[in-house]
Amino acid sequence: MVREALVLDSNDDLAPQLAKMLSDNGYVVRVLATRERAKIFEKEPVYIHTLTENYEKVVKEIDFSHVEMAVFPSPNEMLNLSLARLAKSQGVPMVIIVARSASVAKQAEDEGMTAIITYHCVVSRLLRMLNLKFTRIIPIKGGVALLEMLVTSDSKVLGRSVGELEEETGAKIAVVRDDGFISAKDAEIQEGDYLIAVGPQEDLQSLAD
């Protein structure tokens, strides 16, 4: 069965990054973007729904029968909320908005949506909530790098302890779990953990492969 996701353009790099990750994880991605911003998504395998001044009309023309999730991360929280309500009314099971204020976030939560306030780490929250495969290594200096990885059911680090991985890689490792930070050496890595490691880039690469 086709799995679809709807993403509102964020007017920055977040929406293109999210669209790519969703596509890499097997979703057919529909993007809501203005004509000017649509070119940002041209390299990605997505469907573009060009936004006009009548945003609601454009959204209502979308076939939501296969849309499993809708994400609205634009800087305009009231637009996010308005379009999220439309998606919710169309029966989308998971609707996520990015909000700038606690009051809008509460409105969304009260209406059965999930809200991420902008001072949270938006990308890491989305990755964990949607359980998308994600690994990134960022060189820092010399041979040292930062690894970010979402632990999935087929990850080779699953079930191993933080201490074991530190001994194996020479890195300092911690995980984010349920918005908590865990660095105890006897902590066991679980599915859904957001793993963060700083250490030798070659060893982190072998951990990520």
Task: Summarize it.
The protein has 8 helices and 11 strands. Strand 7 and strand 8 form a beta hairpin.
CATH fold call of the largest domain: Rossmann fold
Approximate helicity band: 25-40%
Question: Element order, helices and strands?
Answer: EHEHEHEHEHEHEEHEEEH
Distance between the termini: 29 Å
**Given the structure, what is the number of helices?**
8
**Rg result:** 19 Å
Beta strands, count: 11
Number of domains: 2
If strands are numbered along the chain, what order do they take across the biggest sheet?
3-2-1-4-5-6
Shape annotation: elongated
Portion of residues in beta strands equals 25-35%
Helix and strand composition category = alpha/beta
Q: How many strands, what sense, and barrel or not for the largest sheet?
A: 6 strands, parallel
Stretches where pLDDT falls below 50 for ≥5 residues?
none
Average pLDDT, rounded to a whole number, is 87
CATH class of the largest domain: Alpha Beta
CATH homologous superfamily placement of the largest domain = NAD(P)-binding Rossmann-like Domain
**CATH architecture descriptor text of the largest domain:** 3-Layer(aba) Sandwich
